[in-house]
Write a structure and sequence with these properties.
alpha/beta, 5-stranded mixed sheet, 4 helices, globular, redox-active center
Length: about 110
């Protein structure tokens, strides 16, 4: 079950939810069939709550929303991109541990 703190975005809502956000935004580019994506999902749920008010955590299904994934050159999943002030700021590809993810977020925000 996914956290209420995570916002699911689409090609249609990406501009408003991510590019136009007041806070830095972590976007998890994922797909339902991706094993490593499922592994990091509970970690992202935890971090969405841990960083509430400092970072917005979103998920974009690359199967359903290919346009946005292509725009940011997402080739492998999971790909995590942190957006700041409407631009891609930092990227991490592949499943990472919670401490690695915390470091990644802290270095970017």
């Amino acid at each position: 079950m996914s956290s209420d703190a995570i916002v699911h975005v689409s090609d249609a809502s990406f501009e408003q939810e991510v590019i136009g956000a007041d806070l830095p935004v972590l976007v998890d580019f994922w797909a339902p069939w991706c094993g490593p994506c499922k592994m990091i999902a509970p970690i992202l749920d935890d971090l969405a709550e841990q960083f509430e008010g400092k970072l917005k955590v979103t998920k974009l299904n690359v199967d359903d929303h290919k346009e946005t994934a292509a725009k940011f050159n997402v080739r492998g999943i999971p790909t995590l991109i942190i957006f700041k002030n409407g631009a891609a700021h930092a990227t991490k590809v592949g499943a990472v541990s919670k401490p690695q993810l915390v470091d990644f977020i802290n270095s970017a925000i």
